[in-house]
Design a protein that fits this description.
single chain, alpha+beta, D-Maltodextrin-Binding Protein, domain 2, 2 domains, seven-stranded mixed sheet, 14 strands
Length: 261
């Protein structure tokens, strides 16, 4: 892995220390727009750390983080897309399934993806064209069909208009797989597919900071990532996301197939 990716990994690891050392008795929690959508003072602290340290590496890079409303625009050159705590509700509840997610784009294309789960000390990283790694060891998606595998699901809780369709989608995969899993962190779910622990992941609406790093890790691990309507991901807008191994990429409910038509 190249030196820049290694440096980003170390910065993400430093961000993860905030989660491990959080003072939960004095953690200030605020609500954002949408059902069960929260931000804590630690989201803000981690994002401030990431912005400061990442821009020391690449001072001219754009920076797009989940927290705050004034985002830089994507364009030519480098751009960081960051989720300081992916799985904030888990973090609030001390559920210990949260991650720091950092993507680096170059001229609008994915270049580096880093996701760090501090609770398991798992560092997932990928560089475009160089494969995907977990704690320095190469990883690869599984080769099992959905019927012999697990499906990781996200429930898009912030978007009430998607609740019914989400339940229908979960029911489909529950019937067609060994079982479904809901971690509460899209970043971790994407890594779960990348390292073969699950065969497929789906969530009907995510923001770029939720999927920019993890989608590269999946593709560099030999997997397949698209929007739910079958298009390549774009990093300037929200999208529903499906990620899978190559065996499972056509396994989807009929209504999703209709959206592709």
């Amino acid at each position: 892995m190249d030196k820049l990716a290694e440096q980003i990994c170390e910065i993400a690891r430093d961000g993860g220390l905030f989660l491990l050392n959080a003072d939960r008795q004095h953690n200030r929690v605020l609500s954002k727009e949408g059902h069960a959508n929260f931000v804590t003072e630690y989201d803000t602290k981690v994002q401030e750390l990431l912005k400061r340290e990442l821009l020391r590496l690449l001072p001219d890079a754009a920076f797009i983080g989940e927290e705050g409303e004034n985002h830089d625009k994507l364009g030519n050159g480098y751009a960081f897309i960051v989720d300081p705590i992916d799985g904030t509700t888990n973090f609030i509840k001390d559920f210990k399934v949260s991650a720091v997610s950092v993507a680096l784009l170059r001229n609008g294309e994915q270049y580096i993806g880093v996701i760090y789960n501090p609770y398991l000390d798992e560092m997932f990283a990928a560089v475009k064209g160089q494969g995907a790694y977990l704690n320095g060891k190469r990883i690869h998606v599984s080769e099992r069909p959905v019927s012999e595998g697990l499906v990781a699901v996200g429930t898009a809780p912030y978007y009430e208009e998607l609740h019914e369709k989400t339940v229908q989608t979960l029911a489909y995969y529950f019937k067609h797989s060994l079982d479904i899993r809901r971690s509460g962190s899209a970043a971790i779910d994407l890594c779960t597919v990348a390292c073969g622990r699950a065969e497929l992941f789906i969530e009907l609406r995510l923001q770029p900071w939720d999927f920019a790093a993890g989608s590269l890790i999946v593709t560099e691990a030999g997997g397949y990532v698209r929007t739910v309507s079958g298009e390549p991901l774009s990093f300037d807008r929200a999208a529903g996301v499906i990620a899978s191994n190559m065996v499972c990429k056509e396994e989807k409910p009929d209504w999703l197939k209709e959206e592709e038509a």
